[in-house]
Design a protein that fits this description.
- It is built from 3 helices and no strands.
- The protein is an all-alpha fold and 59 residues long.
- It has one domain.
- Helix 1 crosses helix 2.
- The longest helix is centred in the middle third of the chain and has 26 residues.
- It is elongated, with a radius of gyration of 16 Å.
- 0% of the residues are buried.
């Protein structure tokens, strides 16, 4: 289901050949990524959560 929605969005925004749609799609993707990151940093606060994540990925 989610995969279907994602494919529709990709077709609509990235493969339509319309530069305006491409621009909107890229901006939407960037916005979603930045929002997720900011939410993670917001909830992490200064409790060392990010350090723990980094250690986990580098270990």
């Amino acid at each position: 289901m989610t995969n279907n929605i994602w494919n529709d969005l990709k077709l609509k925004f990235f493969k339509s050949g319309n530069p305006v749609m491409l621009y909107i799609g890229i901006n939407a993707a960037i916005f979603v990524v930045v929002s997720l990151l900011s939410v993670i940093f917001y909830f992490a606060g200064n409790r060392g959560f990010i350090d723990a994540l980094v250690d986990e990925y580098l270990a």
